[in-house]
Recover the amino acids of this structure.
């Protein structure tokens, strides 16, 4: 039995780590909400005369560094970097939300059914998901992008396939460990159908780690989307997208034109950091790890 003197330091340590987790999560929420707000307000801001259309170059293409007229400067092709960075947020969120939601919608039900029923279906699904899981996410996304082509929906499909096994594995393992609990056996004895057991008794007991996985996958998806855009495989040519803009800025860097790469890269980095902090904070709060 633990004495009060031994329990107090452990409590203070847990409280301190929990406070840090909350702080990290708050910072992540603030950064993420900022980008969400920017994406939502971008179309309204375009109605203002001073905000250039991100898909159209200036009437007189000029190259200008950041200043009063063009806050983030312009590119060699005459595009407003501020406008393209702003609307790049919208494109990133659209693809990332679609990709992570699609992988969640597919992976969670498969994990529930596989973990609960077991047998041949479980072995087949486990083999398939493990095969996909062993493939590098970027390589798989690039390959699928070649097949499905460009576009928001196509990019989301290319990204989502590599995340399905993660949801499947987490939910399947939790389901397999919970399905023999007494409350499941009681539901079976009362004649509850398999869909009812899965949806009412198992679902809410096995999805605790899904929100954490969702945010971390979203952060990873932004990097992969940027990589696809950098390789010319993401969204259509004129669509403002951070990875594509970084590729266009690559040739300008040796000549001292730094601003065309700085601001899209900084936006991508901040968004990834925000989602990562949010995911890590959620992970520590949901599954606190006691120090020994």
């Amino acid at each position: 039995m633990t004495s009060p003197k031994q329990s107090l330091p452990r409590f203070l340590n847990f409280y301190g780590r929990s406070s840090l987790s909350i702080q990290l999560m708050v910072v992540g929420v603030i950064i993420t909400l900022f980008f969400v707000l920017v994406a939502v307000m971008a179309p309204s801001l375009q109605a203002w005369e001073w905000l250039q259309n991100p898909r159209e170059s200036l009437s007189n293409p000029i190259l200008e560094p950041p200043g009063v007229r063009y806050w983030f400067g312009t590119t060699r092709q005459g595009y407003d970097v501020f406008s393209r960075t702003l609307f790049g947020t919208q494109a990133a969120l659209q693809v990332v939300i679609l990709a992570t939601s699609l992988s969640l919608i597919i992976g969670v039900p498969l994990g529930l059914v596989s973990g609960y029923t077991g047998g041949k279906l479980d072995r087949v699904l486990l083999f398939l998901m493990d095969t996909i899981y062993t493939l590098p996410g970027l390589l798989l996304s690039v390959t699928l992008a070649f097949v499905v082509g460009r576009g928001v929906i196509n990019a989301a499909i290319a990204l989502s396939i590599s995340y399905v096994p993660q949801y499947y594995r987490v939910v399947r393992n939790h389901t397999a460990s919970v399905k023999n609990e007494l409350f499941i056996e009681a539901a079976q004895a009362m004649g509850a159908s398999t869909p009812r057991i899965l949806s009412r008794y198992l679902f809410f007991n096995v999805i605790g780690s899904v929100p954490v996985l969702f945010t971390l996958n979203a952060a990873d998806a932004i990097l992969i989307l940027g990589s696809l855009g950098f390789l010319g495989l993401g969204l259509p040519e004129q669509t403002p997208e951070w990875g594509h803009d970084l590729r266009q800025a690559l040739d300008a860097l040796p000549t001292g034109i730094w601003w065309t790469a700085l601001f899209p890269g900084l936006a991508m980095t901040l968004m990834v950091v925000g989602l990562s902090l949010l995911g890590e904070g959620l992970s520590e709060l949901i599954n606190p790890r006691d120090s020994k």
About this structure: Residues 71-272 form a domain with the MetI-like fold fold (CATH 1.10.3720.10). The radius of gyration is 23 Å. The CA atoms of residues 39 and 90 lie 4 Å apart. The longest helix spans residues 4-46.
